[in-house]
Amino acid sequence: MALTGVLRPGHVALRVLEMGPALKHYVDVLGLIEVARDKAGRVFLKAWDEHDHHSVVLREADEAGMDYMGWRVDSPATLKKLAADIEKSGLASDLGWVPAGEHPATGERFRFTVATGHVMELFAEKDKLGNDCGTDGPDVNPHPWPDNLRGIAPSRFDHCLLYGDDLDGTVKLFREVLGFGLAEQVTAGPDGSLMIGAFLTCSNKPHDIALIRQPVKGKFHHASFILGSWEEVLKAGDILSRNKVSLDIGPTRHGITRGETIYFFDPSGNRNEVFAGGYIYYPDKPTITWTEQELGPAIFYHDRKLNERFLQVFT
Ligand SMILES: [Fe+2]
Q1: CATH top class, domain 6-123
Q2: Which of 25, 54, 118, 207 is catalytic?
Q3: What's the rounded Cα separation, in Å, for the pair 70 and 128?
Q4: What is the Cα–Cα distance from 226 to 276, expressed in whole angstroms?
Q5: Which residues contact 74 (CB under 8 A, 6 or more apart)?
Q6: Residue 207: active-site member
Q7: Which of 92, 153, 258, 270 is most exposed, with the fewest beta carbons within 10 Å of its own?
Q8: Is 260 a catalytic residue?
C-alpha cells in the first residue's frame, strides 16, 4: 500500500441551531444520506460513494460552527504511533482518547487541539456500509451510481477550510508529525515570509485541509464535498436556487487548487462548498506559492477579487 499513515478526512462534526431545517438542507438539498441518530440527538450522515459509516455529524447547539474534524488512519498500529508522536511533538494540547462506540460503528479516536484552536481526531476503525452500487453483493458487479440519489448528491466529503491565528504551529504539526504535504501556500509580508494560507494534503488531492491566518481561534470557514464535473457544479447552482438556499459565491473557479466551486450556507450559517476538478498531487510536487497581491484570483480566479464575505463570515 503506497498511501499510508493518515488516509483522508473521515468526518466533520458541525453544530447547527435547529436540526429540522439542518436535515432538510443536508439531506434534501445537499443530498447526504442519514445513517444513524444517537441518544444525544446527534445525526450521522454520509455521501453516497463513501464506504465508511458516516462522514458528517450534526448536533444542535446555540452557536453554529465546527466541533471537530476526524482523520482516518490506515491501522490501529498507526493510530497508536501517531498519538504518541503528537504527544511527543508538543505541538498539540488537550490530548485524550474518545472510547470506541462514542460515534456509532467507530473505534476509539485520539483527540487533540492544534495551535489554531481546532479540535482534531484520528481513528482507525469505522464500519463499512458500502455505496449501494453492487448488484450481486455489496461490492460485486457495481453500477456507476446508486438509485434514489437526492439533491446535489456529492460523492464524498472532501476537505475543510479553517480560520485560526497560529498557522505556523498547526502547519508544522500536519507536515512534520502527520506527514502531510504543502500543496499550495499564500504568503505575505515584506519578504514574503509570513504564511497566511496553507493547503495541505495527505493524499493525491490538492488539499485535504486548508487554513487561513486570521486573528481568531478554532473558527470554521467551510466543509466541502466533491462532484464529478463542472456541469454538476452548475447543476448544484440550479438546485440551490430552486431551494432558495443562501448563496455565497459561484459557480466560479479557484486559482488555488484549480477547483470549480460554489459556496453556500446551511440554515445555521455554516458555509458549505461543492466543487469539481483540481489536479493530482504527488509528494514530490513543488509547493505552489501565491503572493498576497494575487490573493483575489488565488481564491476566486474569475472575479479576481475576494468578496467581503470570504474573510468576514465564518462560524
Ligand atoms: Fe474548499
Answers
A1: alpha beta
A2: 207
A3: 16
A4: 6
A5: 1, 3, 4, 5, 7, 124
A6: yes
A7: 258
A8: no
Query: Is 143 a catalytic site residue?
Result: no
Please report the pLDDT score of residue 83 as a whole number.
Answer: 98
Residue 61 CA, ligand 1 centroid: distance in Å:
24
Give the Å distance between the CA of 255 and the centre of ligand 1: 11
Within 8 A by CB and 6+ apart from 37, the residues are 43, 44
* Neighbouring residues of the ion ligand 1, judged by CB less than 5 Å: 224, 273
Domain range annotation of the chain: 6-123, 156-312
222 is catalytic: yes
Q: What is the pLDDT of residues 26-60, one digit of tens each?
A: 999 999 999 999 999 999 999 999 999 999 999 99
Whether 263 is a known active-site residue: answer yes
**Residue at grid coordinates 473557479:** 253
Ligand 1 geometric centre to CA of 76 (Å): 29
In whole angstroms, what separates CA 4 from the centre of its chain? 19
- Determine the distance separating the centroid of ligand 1 and the alpha carbon of 136, expressed in angstroms: 36
Question: How many Å apart are CA 260 and CA 10, to the nearest integer?
Answer: 23
Question: 138 CA to middle of ligand 1, Å?
Answer: 31
Query: Could you give phi then psi for residue 294, rounded to 5 degrees?
Result: -105, 20
User: CA 9, CA 120: separation in Å to the nearest integer?
Assistant: 10
159-213, pLDDT tens digit by residue? 999 999 999 999 999 999 999 999 999 999 989 899 999 999 999 999 999 999 9
pLDDT top residue among 312 and 64: 64
What is the Å distance from ligand 1's center to 99 Cα?
A: 31
Q: Rounded to two decimals, what is the model's pTM?
A: 0.97
Task: Let me know if 273 is a catalytic residue.
Answer: yes
